[in-house]
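WARN retry 2 of 3 for item q-0093 after timeout on previous attempt; input resubmitted unchanged.
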Amino acid sequence: MQFVVATKAALKLSDYTVTEAGFGADLGAEKFFDIKCRQAGLRPAAAVVVATVRALKMQGGVAKDALARENLTALRAGLANLERHIENLGKFGVPALVAINRFDADTQAELGLIQSAVAGRLGVKAIICDHWARGAAGAERLAHAASRLADSGLADFRPLYPDTMSLWQKTRTIAREIYRADDILSTDSVRAQLRDLEDAGWGGLPVCVAKTQYSFSEDPSLLGAPVGHRPTIREVCG
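OK item q-0093 returned
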């Protein structure tokens, strides 16, 4: 509740309010949109996806001890992960741009590849940021671009699923739309727990999914933008 109060207070006191939604847009942004925005009546005007060359090369299969070396092949492979995150934001009707958090070892070829790829395939602008070194000046271009996008009127925010959908179908919708799973699996006891929650009057609430932040699947070693997997619901807390 305190996070909702803080956000609504900021909206009244400033021209633009920025909320950090959490690690991984498939986890943090989905929860922000489907839970916080739904419950608080918030309608986001724009989203910023933070990316790094290092993380995208890891998604392309590069080991941690080799991330400082230029590797355009791995970066191209890892870009599928970033593109999936951007596509997912579009499912909520929120326009996005990318902030590239630059590291010392990043090369101009790598930075340029990210910018050209997301612009060419998705029409999304990627802005190089070095606020870690230059403070606010290092993110000034990002701030201007984000405010322009927020003022563009392109946003048409909508949650991923309706309140009236069953808890099982809400979970299944997240898995299929955000994680690109074929379906979800569970034990009979998990299905029974979900039915008990609905019988107790909690069926109209949104669901909060916990999973690894390293993959769109439940397997942290499955990198990039996997499809066709079938995650298992192992536990229900309500």
